[in-house]
Amino acid sequence: MVDATIIHASSSTQNAERARDPEMHQTRKGNQWHHGMKLHLGADTQRGLIHSAESTAANVHDCRMLPELLHGE
After folding, report:
1. Do β-strands 2-8 and 25-29 pair in parallel, antiparallel, or remain unpaired?
2. Which of 10, 29, 43, 73 is the most exposed place for a label (fewest CB within 10 A)?
3. Is the dihedral of CA 57, 63, 67, 73 positive or negative?
């Protein structure tokens, strides 16, 4: 089983550099926009154990992470 969770980050520029974090991006889920990153998880459906995890910018599509998350066992 593979799933992705959005990790929200502040889109504010009220920091010392006056800039957004360059590693954070926007994505749309349903009709709502989110700013941050994604945590992609691969889990064993029989035991419910997480066997792999990858973090990406929020705009990376979930299917692009499948080769890293599925191990075939």
Report:
1. unpaired
2. 73
3. positive
Q: Looking at residue 7, what is its pLDDT?
A: 83
Query: Which has the closest alpha carbon to 53: 37, 66, 67, 42?
Result: 42
**pLDDT in tens for each of the 73 residues of the chain?**
888 888 887 766 666 776 767 777 888 888 888 888 899 999 988 888 999 999 998 888 888 998 888 876 6
| Identity of the amino acid at 48 | G
Structural domain boundaries of the chain? 2-69
Cβ proximity of 38 and 26 under 8 Å: no
Rounded distance between C-alpha atoms, residue 24 and residue 10, angstroms: 9
Q: Give the per-residue pLDDT at 12.
A: 63
